[in-house]
C-alpha cells in the first residue's frame, strides 16, 4: 500500500472557497482544547516534508500555510501552549498535553516575519485554500524514509496536481532572496 502523504492530499485535493471567512483551530485534547481563531483564509498552503513541521499520525508530510499575525488569536486554553524549539526561526507553539502545533510565529528578522504558520486540518470548517505545492520533499529521507521510494512520493504529488520542490517553491524562494538582497543593499528596487 502506498504510504500516506497527508489526509488532505491522499484522495485528491478539495478546492477552497472564494471569500472563505476563516475558522477555529483546535488541538487534539479530548477536553479543554486549545482554540485558535483565524480571520480569513490561509495563504501559500503547502505540504512540507521537513522534520520540524507538525504532521498528523501516519502522515509523511505536514500541510502548512500562513496568515497575517493580525488574523490569528488564541481564544481558549492558551496556557497549555509551549514553544517547541526557542532557537528555531519559526517559534512553533504546541499543546503541552497532546503535542499538536497550533501556530508558528517568526519573531526574529526574516523575510516571512509578520506571518504565522498554521495547519488547517485542525479546523472543522470547510473552504480553506487547498495545498498549492509540496516543499522540502527530500527531507523525509532524514526522518527514515527509504530514498529508493522517493519517485513514488513525487509521482503521487504530481498525480493530484502538486509540483514538488526540495526547498520552497520558486515564488517563495524569490521572496526570501528579495528580502535578503534588499537587506544587504545589493538589490535596489
Ligand atoms: N532538512 C531540514 C529542513 C528544515 C527546514 O529548513 N525547514 C524549513 C521549512 S518549515 C524552515 O523554513 N524551517 C525554519 C524553522 O523551522 O524555523 C529538516 O527536515 O529538518
Ligand atoms: Zn491538546
Ligand atoms: Zn517544514
How would you describe what is shown here?
The chain is of the alpha+beta class. It has one domain: glutathione-dependent formaldehyde- activating enzyme (gfa), CATH 3.90.1590.10. 13% of the residues lie in helices and 28% in strands. The protein is built from two helices and eleven strands; from the N terminus they run ββββββββββαβα. The strands form two sheets. The chain has an eight-stranded mixed sheet, covered by helices on one side. A hairpin with a 5-residue loop joins strand 7 (90-95) and strand 8 (101-106). The longest helix has 15 residues, at 170-184. The radius of gyration is 17 Å and the shape is globular. The termini are far apart. The mean pLDDT is 97.
Please name the defining characteristics of this protein.
three-stranded antiparallel sheet; binds glutathione; 2 helices; zinc; 189 residues; binds zinc ion; single chain; CENP-V/GFA; Mss4-like_sf; alpha+beta; glutathione-dependent formaldehyde- activating enzyme (gfa); 28% strand; globular; zinc ion binding; EC 4.4.1.22
Uncertain regions spanning at least 5 consecutive residues: none
CATH top level?
Alpha Beta
Shape: globular
The CATH fourth-level homologous superfamily: glutathione-dependent formaldehyde- activating enzyme (gfa)
- Helical segment count: 2
Which series of helices and strands comes N to C?
EEEEEEEEEEHEH
What is the level-2 CATH architecture name? Alpha-Beta Complex
Please provide the count of β strands: 11
Give the mean pLDDT.
Answer: 97
Enumerate the distinct ligands.
glutathione, zinc ion
Class inferred from helices and paired strands? alpha+beta
Strand order of the largest sheet: 6-7-8-9-4-3-10-11
Count of individual domains: 1
CATH structural fold name: glutathione-dependent formaldehyde- activating enzyme (gfa)
Helical percent range? 10-25%
Characterize the main sheet.
8 strands, mixed
Report how far apart the termini are.
51 Å
Strand residues, percent? 25-35%
Calculate Rg over CA atoms: 17 Å
Amino acid at each position: 500500500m502506498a504510504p500516506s502523504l497527508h489526509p488532505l492530499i491522499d484522495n485528491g485535493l478539495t478546492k477552497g472557497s472564494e471569500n472563505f471567512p476563516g475558522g477555529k483551530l483546535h488541538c487534539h485534547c479530548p477536553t479543554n482544547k486549545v482554540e485558535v481563531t483565524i480571520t480569513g483564509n490561509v495563504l501559500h498552503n503547502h505540504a512540507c516534508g521537513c522534520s520540524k513541521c507538525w504532521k498528523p499520525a501516519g502522515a509523511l508530510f505536514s500541510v502548512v500555510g500562513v496568515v497575517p499575525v493580525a488574523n490569528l488569536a488564541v481564544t481558549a486554553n492558551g496556557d497549555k501552549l509551549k514553544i517547541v524549539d526557542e532557537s528555531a526561526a519559526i517559534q512553533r507553539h504546541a499543546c503541552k498535553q497532546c503535542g499538536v502545533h497550533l501556530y508558528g510565529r517568526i519573531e526574529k528578522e526574516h523575510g516571512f516575519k509578520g506571518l504565522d504558520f498554521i495547519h488547517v486540518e485542525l479546523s472543522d470548517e470547510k473552504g480553506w485554500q487547498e495545498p498549492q505545492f509540496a516543499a522540502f520533499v527530500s527531507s523525509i529521507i532524514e526522518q527514515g524514509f527509504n530514498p529508493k521510494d522517493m519517485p513514488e512520493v513525487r509521482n503521487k504529488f504530481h498525480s493530484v496536481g502538486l509540483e514538488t520542490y526540495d526547498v520552497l517553491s520558486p515564488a517563495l524562494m524569490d521572496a526570501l532572496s528579495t528580502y535578503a538582497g534588499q537587506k544587504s543593499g545589493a538589490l535596489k528596487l
